[in-house]
Design goal:
Blueprint lengths: L1 H13 L9 E2 L6 E8 L8 E4 L3 E10 L6 E9 L2 E5 L21 E9 L8 E10 L4 E12 L1
Parallel strand pairs: 3-9
Antiparallel strand pairs: 1-9, 2-4, 4-7, 5-6, 5-8, 8-9
Length: about 150
């Protein structure tokens, strides 16, 4: 998996897509194939340093395995085996995230979300679990992003 992720990332970089944060897929079944993940300003790091009050854009290139009418964004802070839900400003992934719903099977999609790092987040290193979920609560895709929140 690691070799293929690096290969996809190199191809995406050649296509002018920001990449290189060390991301991983979540465990469990997913209804899509994820090709590339990027987090703005984290092009050369294993753990992305996110500063309070700044905006960052996450991008995920993927193909859904089936037609999905509606999708929503869900995010979690992962501390060891504990995942705590974090609200997002726009949970409707069909609205202002670059997706055209319904998502069609075997069509490449680019999800984009502009994320503001809230000053209320505690200063710490953790994994952010970022996923989009279909209307029937099935996970379409889910990725883990290693981050560090700080001033």
């Amino acid at each position: 998996m690691y070799l293929s992720q690096n290969f996809v990332c190199i191809l995406a970089c050649m296509a002018r897509v920001t990449c290189a944060i060390k991301w991983s897929l979540c465990e469990g079944d997913q209804g899509a194939v994820v090709y590339a993940v990027s987090l703005e300003e984290c092009e050369t790091t294993d753990r992305c340093h996110l500063q309070y009050g700044h905006n960052y854009t996450i991008k995920v290139l993927f193909k859904s395995g089936m037609k999905i009418d509606d999708v929503r964004t869900e995010t979690y802070g992962v501390f060891g085996n504990l995942a705590l839900r974090w609200p997002v400003d726009n949970p409707n992934a069909c609205n202002k995230c670059g997706l055209h719903c319904p998502l069609l099977a075997r069509i490449e999609n680019e999800y984009k979300y502009k994320w503001r790092v809230d000053e209320r987040y505690p200063p710490m290193a953790l994994d952010v679990k970022w996923e989009i979920v279909g209307g029937d609560d099935d996970v379409v895709w889910c990725v883990l992003l290693p981050v560090l929140f700080s001033d």
